[in-house]
Amino acid sequence: MTRRYWNINLEEMMEAGVHFGHGTRKWNPRMAPYISAKRKGIHITNLTRTARFLSEACDLVFDAASRGKQFLIVGTKNKAADSVARAAIKARCHYVNKKWLGGMSTNWSTTETRLHKFRDLRTEQKTGRLNRLPKRDAAMLKRQLSHLQTYLGGIKYMTGLPDIVIIVDQQEEYTALRECITLGIPTICLIDTNCDPDLADISIPANDDAIASIRLILNKLVFAICEGRSSYIRNP
Q: For the whole prediction, is pTM greater than 0.85?
């Protein structure tokens, strides 16, 4: 795996609140190696460990992107949704930021059928065909289109399972993580002090509740993906 310098700055992470964990009563003992202190009733994450695993994750996504691999970013809670969409669009990744529909990856054939329906309805809307239908039929199909846009809009160009999945908040996206594990899809996961660090292929200990923390971690990963894609374009 390529080793590169990703400008991961501990002071920058502190300013973003990456080090703030959950309350000391709400933690997973398996996170002990990633916790450096307790302060005012909350655990403090060891940012040196965060920097190490974030750097490893950046190396992984850079190498994958340089080989033309596809990524999916998953983060559906309100604090993560906008950052996930922005990061994914910037790096030309697929994303899910509203709700992970059970079986989205393990039952890919059903997801693929929904995506075909979604694309067909988008085409009908763009060509004006929907507006030429009876009002009742048009209204029903427009509702379907709106529903599909909400839940599948971020994966509308996906033609197969992703090569790597990046997950924001292990507990919130546990179903997505379990599906990836079942299928053997490599995962990178932000883990707070209440998570299990042994589930994902690379777990990045970080505050998964603060927007600034989520955005910082995603920005580093996205930069690495973009760098990798540039390398792939230059060396096809």
A: yes
